[in-house]
Amino acid sequence: MRARLNLLVIGVASLIVIAFVIPLGLAVRQQADQRGRITAERTAQTLAAVVVRSTAASDSEISSDALADVVGPIPEGSAIVLPDGTTLGPATPDRALIEEVGAARTALSAYSDDGFGLAIPVVTQSGTVVIFSSVATAILVEGVVRAWIFLALLGVGLILASLFVADRLGRTVVGPSIRISSAAERLGKGDLESRVAEEGPPELVAIASAFNVLADRIEGLLAEEREALADLSHRLRTPLTALRLQVEQLPHPDEKKVLLEKVDLLGEAVNDLISQARTRSDSGPMSCDVSDVVTRRSEFWQVLAADQGRDFKLAIGDSPLPIGASEVELAAAFDALVGNVFAHTPSETAFAVAVRPVGEWVEIEVEDNGPGFTQGFDPTDRGISGVESSGLGLDIARQFAGSAGGSMKTSTSLLGGARIVLELPLQK
To answer: Which of 150, 243, 290, 301 has its CA 20 to 30 A from that of 194?
Structure first.
């Protein structure tokens, strides 16, 4: 925007300069030419006046010697042509012009390669005396080149001055706009402390103020959401404690041991949820390792899979796969995908989880050999599951993938059932 504004100002300023400088340059040229012609006219009129006075005082024929004595030194570029063709003076007159003036008995002027020439006839008793005065081309253009150079420099200076003013003005507009854009980008990446100075034109000040209010509101809403999630998770501790007490009272040691392990895993998940909800990154962009989160959540689901006789295969590499999303949201999305397998497939249905990098992306794949998706409905539609459930699980995963800059795809698994893949961009 700043570059376009500068180009616009340069174009307008150039047009204005051209509109004034070119006519002014032509006027300077005409003025120099007119100054030279006036000089020639004054010289010719002065000589003509002398010739008229000298011929009026004498009734005899005009002689070159007598006229030379009366006129005195003839200026450079001038000459007096007598009726007999004798020429007095240093100049070499234009013979064609002299003959034309002598015949017409009227003053004439003409331009030539040497400059400007003027011939004035003086009618005497002896015939027509022609006064010739000329100005060289150098005199006709004297000072013109220097004036043109000055005008060109003046025009360039005006354009540069306009560009400087426009650049300063553009900086006051573009600078705050860029800072608002950068702050919005940081806010979108999770930097809740991102704010922008309220500066610049009134319109940008209003935008900056609205952005700061929006950022404060988002930060407040997220804080309320985290607190609500933490409080909800905290409330689960009481029924978990009661459940543990009841399990400890079971008479069968093996059954009690298995149930206690499940209660402990559930308690750890609740504690982890509380901790992550309260310590969710408020100071910068969110980030987590897909390999680490999926591995830890798979340990939880592996216990339930073993209890239901499900064959569970996990394929995860050793290298870290960071993404720009919170660990809590990734864990919730992954739990929604695996929970969907447990909710909509019968016991002993095998399923598999794979995490693999694909270029600048990472794929989280969950597939099973169950009945697959019911034909005729979109499994990602919120509130629609095809069975008696809320239908929110896959929508949670889809929304997470979209907020992280990726997508979710559903298809038929090679195992014969459903296949769901989350494609998430790797963090650079």
So the answer is: 290
